[in-house]
Design brief:
By secondary structure, this protein is mainly alpha-helical. The chain contains seven helices and two strands.
Length: about 150
Amino acid sequence: MSATVIQQRTANPTTITRRLYQIGSLTFIAIGLFHTLVHFQDLSGGDLERRFDQVDPVMLGDDAVRSWDLFQGVSLLMGFFAIAIGAINLGALTGRATAPPVVGMVTIAALLAVIVVGFAYLGLLQTVGGAIGIGLFLPTALGVGRAAESQ
């Protein structure tokens, strides 16, 4: 009887891969929601806008764009895209025990970009967060648990 109890409590690779993937996907959604909330609470105020107005416009092709407008657009898109990545990743689980490995690989590529940008421009939080995210999506990218799903 004790062997049965132990066997029931031991998670199989498919379950572990799925749970890590879900945690990573939900984290993308949470980061996007929190970023958007912080944007509206702290990154859209008049004082910050006045500081951005001291910066010359940025040329995008033939258009001169106010630095403030560019910052607002990029900041909001970052939040929205994080939410979208998380939602799309969760959608990839529909009807499956684990997401296709290519979804994990693409997500890891995005997280590698987060690490590079964090290291080059933003800071330790993005670098460490990207590395943790890779750990969450790596089992999916490697196909861990896929053999058990096909049986």
